[in-house]
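[[Local backbone shapes]]
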Amino acid sequence: MKLISVRALSALAVTTMLAGAPLFAHAADTPAPVSKGGEQAESGAKTAALTDTDLSGYVGSINPAEVGGLLNYCTQNNYVADYDDAFKVLQSYNQKTNAVPDGQEGNMFYARGTAGQLQANGKTYSIATSSIPVRQKTCKAVLDRAKAAL
């Protein structure tokens, strides 16, 4: 029994190592992560290039549940001027639109927004790859749309 356990653990260790090998090989090509405050984290010579593409103009055309998710993203990452106000709007907006339904069915639009993404014109855009001023401007547009719906 002891021999089987040792073999099983050894096989598990080798399997884990092999499964992680592509990740280690790809790690050198991965851009540095962005910290919660939005600053670029230090990671050697490579840094992620941020875009200045203004996404705020798309906010008016996205799904209401996606607005709720984006407001959640913006609030949690402090891209709104007044956290307390934005959080109250988020709660009211989610209740009104049922963006976060009861049960386990979830809402993919809300999940996409919470990940900092929005879908417009058949394309998916990421706020996380935008510069800080663009994130703040987009988050202001999201907050304004949610307030207008209340």
